[in-house]
Design brief:
With about 325 residues, the protein is α/β, with parallel strands linked by helices. It has one domain: Ureohydrolase domain (Arginase, Chain A, 3-Layer(aba) Sandwich). It has ten helices and eight strands. It has an eight-stranded parallel beta sheet, with helices on both faces. Strand 5, helix 7 and strand 6 form a beta-alpha-beta unit. The longest helix has 23 residues. The chain is globular.
Length: about 325
């Protein structure tokens, strides 16, 4: 055993997904915001959407596990994101009052703001959709470093609009998964006239339930329209609306067809959703735009099938988001 070199053995094992401590994409673990150009964080929160099933807080751990096996190179962008900028796993948001959503969103914002102050972009894995409110507040608006004080154009993939400003609360939560898309506009963090909501199902809510988004200024590209105009049509609409604005992307896994994402907290059967291959193409259609922050939400791994396909597709979306950022950083060095 005297010739057993432990450090060399570790290097030989790095390529095997089942060895070592799981981090997002086997990235280094560095919690200091200043250590990264792009930081990957978990937001293990599930009390912001009390009307449906819980366990969204288990999403970050599930994606860390499956992402160890994912390839690190982006074939269509012809880059390895980790080779062009510093990408690290910066850990999870600590949420000591996790069962109280309106307190937890304050903690999420305070945690995320540290990264904006450092000039570090965040890709966050949730968590229910209430996390997007504080994450956007941390990165956009008057005091933001990354947007230079500008509002962001929101690119929002979802089955639901989450803009219920006509309701004072959602089962007691005022900063809930149902409210964030409205209060971010009202408080000066999102420019709705540059923003798009993609994949909204025709069977959700009641007739007229889209009115709040449209009154705020969002452009809804629902599933019926997507079936007519296709991936390219969606990309054209989004890019035209965004213009030169900084972008925040939020991706609710329930926007995907249940075939590709059965383990979500608000599954919508009966009407097709976006297939994962089309979603990837839509995200890649944002290439060259300034994505300053992003999140993936509503994965519920306790409902996944044995091969963990929802967790794996959440991993794919997260990889596309960090690749958009890395590509932009590399182009603008």
């Amino acid at each position: 055993m005297s010739d057993y070199d432990v450090e060399n053995a570790k290097k030989e094992m790095e390529r095997w997904y089942w060895w070592g401590i799981p981090t997002f994409f086997r990235s280094p673990w560095k919690e200091d915001p200043a250590d990264s150009d792009i930081a990957l964080i978990g937001v293990p929160h599930s009390s912001g959407n009390g009307s449906t099933e819980r366990d969204q807080h288990l999403g970050p751990r599930a994606v860390r596990h499956v992402s160890a096996l994912y390839r690190r190179g982006h074939g269509r962008f012809n880059l390895i994101p980790w080779d062009v900028c510093r990408i690290n796993d910066a850990g999870d948001v600590p949420l000591p009052e996790a069962m109280v959503s309106d307190i937890s969103v304050q903690h999420i914002e305070a945690f995320a703001k540290r990264f904006d102050v450092a000039g570090t972009r965040l890709v966050s894995m949730g968590g229910d959709h209430s996390i997007t409110g504080p994450l956007v507040k941390a990165v956009a608006g008057r005091h933001s470093r990354l947007t230079e004080g500008r509002e962001v154009a929101l690119v929002h993939f979802d089955s639901h609009t989450d803009s219920y400003n006509h309701l004072p609360h959602w089962l007691g939560n005022r900063r809930s998964a149902a409210h964030w898309a409205s209060y971010l506009v009202e408080e000066g963090h999102v420019d709705p006239h540059r923003s798009t909501q993609i994949g909204i199902r025709p069977n959700v809510g009641t007739p007229g339930s889209r009115n709040t988004s449209e009154e705020l200024g969002y452009r809804i590209v629902g599933m019926d329209e997507i079936e007519e105009i296709g991936v390219k049509g969606v990309i054209d609409i989004v890019r035209k609306r965004v213009g030169d604005a900084p972008i925040y992307v939020t991706f609710d896994m329930d926007t995907l067809d249940p075939t590709d994402a059965p383990a979500v907290s608000n599954i919508e059967p009966g009407y097709p959703g976006i297939r994962i291959g089309d979603a990837v193409r839509m995200l890649q259609g944002l290439r060259g735009l300034n994505v300053v922050g992003a999140d993936v939400v509503c994965l519920m791994p306790t409902k996944d099938n044995p091969n963990q396909i929802t967790s794996m597709n959440a991993m794919v979306v997260m990889f596309e988001l960090l690749s958009l950022m890395a590509d932009y950083i590399a182009r603008n060095k």
